[in-house]
Write a structure and sequence with these properties.
Shape: globular
Helix content: 10-25%
GO molecular function: 2 iron, 2 sulfur cluster binding; electron transfer activity; metal ion binding
GO biological process, one term: P450-containing electron transport chain
InterPro entries: 2Fe-2S_ferredoxin-like_sf, 2Fe-2S_ferredoxin-type, Adrenodoxin-like, Beta-grasp_dom_sf
Strand order of the largest sheet: 2-1-5-3-4
CATH superfamily: Beta-grasp domain
Number of domains: 1
Number of strands: 5
Radius of gyration: 12 Å
Strand content: 15-25%
Protein name: 2Fe-2S iron-sulfur cluster binding domain-containing protein
Organism: Flavobacterium caseinilyticum
Low-confidence stretches: none
Order of helices and strands: EEHEHEE
CATH architecture: Roll
CATH class: Alpha Beta
Distance between the termini: 34 Å
Number of helices: 2
Length: 105
Amino acid sequence: MDVLIKIKDREGIVHELQAPTDMAMNIMELCKAYELPVEGTCGGMAMCASCQCYVLNDVALPEMGDDEEAMLSEAFYVKSNSRLGCQIPITESLEGLELELAPEN
């Protein structure tokens, strides 16, 4: 089953992406699959913040882990709604999620 996730890129263009829930992907990998400008330099280990995004609507997300919190405490352009895309697995509960990519570091 796929879920619909909307991601606003750094130029303000909103992309409606079909995200598969059966491939163990996360938001960073989804962005890369659709060729959105997300580096993912650390490969999804919560060590670089190049996949930082802002959560724009109220969709239940997994709790932020210690590694993600630590990385965001050192990252640039952090807001109260910041998350690392690599730390958000794609599940059916993400249906309708709206995100905006953070500026590049």
